[in-house]
Design brief:
- The structure is a homodimer of 244-residue chains.
- Chain A is α/β, with parallel strands linked by helices.
- Chain A contains ten helices and eight strands.
- Chain A has helices at 10-18, 35-43, 52-58, 68-78, 94-101, 151-179, 183-194, 198-211, 213-226, 233-242, and strands at 2-6, 25-29, 47-49, 61-64, 85-88, 106-113, 122-126, 141-146.
- Chain A has an eight-stranded mixed beta sheet, with helices on both faces.
- Chain A is elongated and about 65 Å long.
- The first copy, chain A, starts with a strand and ends with a helix.
- At the A-B interface, strand 8, helix 6, helix 7 and helix 10 of A face strand 8, helix 6, helix 7 and helix 10 of B.
């Protein structure tokens, strides 16, 4: 079996390492890639073809792990050459996922949850062809959510809505705690019910959110636009607070 | 040493059990108590005096564990007879705590966090006399927060602001998840970062909040009124959502 990668960043590189089997070969291309990516490809165990068109033609599974903004373009350019499964792992909205899926016959909606280089990355899959990728569970924990394209993307948005709004709630709670000189006590008392790592986790969430508040607020805006049939009282006020 | 109880409900009864020492005697009174409370007192190892005035006069530590609405009244009536420490464990606002403290010379602001009959109830204390009660740590985990009266009450409010707002965020998130047929998947994906008990904990929080939404919304209103110098964007929208 041949697995091809469009894009060879952290996700592709780590997947090529994790999926280690004598029956599986990997292919990608250095076509129009950055010098850094080309170095990483050369260090890996992945065969290099001249073009991504060839990669698509040769692959039984074609994995697109690009930047979100190139995800649709990659599908438009190479999806049509793909005779096997086209697995999109880009962090894109459900709407973009649907658009991408129109450019490949056997499309699977996917996402890596958790850091790919952590102890327990999990591969989430959805779509009518997802079952065909269940063999990957031997190499990386693989969960099939449903046979509906878009469900993985929706679930990512939903998760992001919850965690980002929670982070803003933490920011607000800490503001009150600090104003009352009860910062440490707040962490301590809540760790009784929220777990021993509550302080560390909360502090990293707060920092993370404040350090990239512009990006987080754009992501919250996308979430609100996507789930526009829901009221989203909490998510909307998280956005309001972030924008101040 | 003599410890007296004003009010003999779950908290007092369990404290009398936990604080088991040959050097400590307990006293309370059946004066104006309900038949159920009188039965519980008779079953316990606590000496019964005729009046709460006598209880106050005799105690080295007088513990008030009543209903919130009787807390101030108890202090007004018996605080003046108390020669030792007056420990208030009622679930009252910081403002009420300050009022109560004016009726006793050596006042300590306290709260039991976690269920009193659970494995790990913790006694939180604040105020200039809190140190004098640190010996209780031998019987029940005891944390002194500060030497400021009101800090325990503020911390309780802060905790309640966080957990109640979080519960409303959970309600909102589950509404979106259900609308997208991703309820179980939402719990599953979040348990990866929020802990294995995320589903059980979230479901019990949601139920709890929906089953007593009127009381929760009153408590949120009190929180907003108390911390009125803070913006409380998130807490306010939790109240808004609860009131719908």
């Amino acid at each position: 079996m041949i697995i091809g990668f469009i894009g060879f960043g952290k996700v592709s590189g780590n997947l090529a390492d994790l999926i280690s089997s004598p029956d599986i070969e990997f292919v990608t291309s250095t076509e129009n890639r950055s010098p850094e990516t080309i170095r990483n490809i050369k260090k890996s165990n992945v065969e290099v073809l001249d073009t991504f068109r060839e990669v698509a033609l040769k692959s039984d599974i074609l994995i697109s792990a690009n930047s979100p903004k190139n995800a649709l373009d990659a599908a438009v350019k190479y999806g049509k050459y793909c005779k096997g499964i086209y697995l999109d792992l880009n962090n894109v909205s459900p709407d973009t996922t649907f658009k991408i899926s129109e450019h490949a016959d056997d499309f699977v909606d996917g996402a890596i949850i958790g850091k790919i280089d952590s102890n327990n990355p999990i591969l989430y899959l959805s779509g009518p062809n997802a079952e065909k990728l269940l063999f990957l569970d031997e190499f990386i924990e693989t969960h099939i959510i449903s046979d509906r394209i878009g469900d993985v993307s929706k679930l990512k948005l939903l998760r992001s809505a919850y965690t980002k709004t929670l982070s803003v709630l933490l920011i607000e709670s800490l503001e009150i705690a600090k104003d009352n000189n009860l910062e440490n006590e707040f962490y301590e008392i809540l760790s009784l019910t929220e777990g021993d790592d509550f302080k560390d986790k909360s502090q990293s969430r707060i920092e993370n959110t404040l350090n990239s508040s512009k990006r987080k607020s754009e992501e919250l805006k996308e979430i609100i636009e996507y789930f526009d049939e829901n009221e989203l009282t909490m998510v909307k006020s998280a956005l309001k607070k972030l924008n101040r």
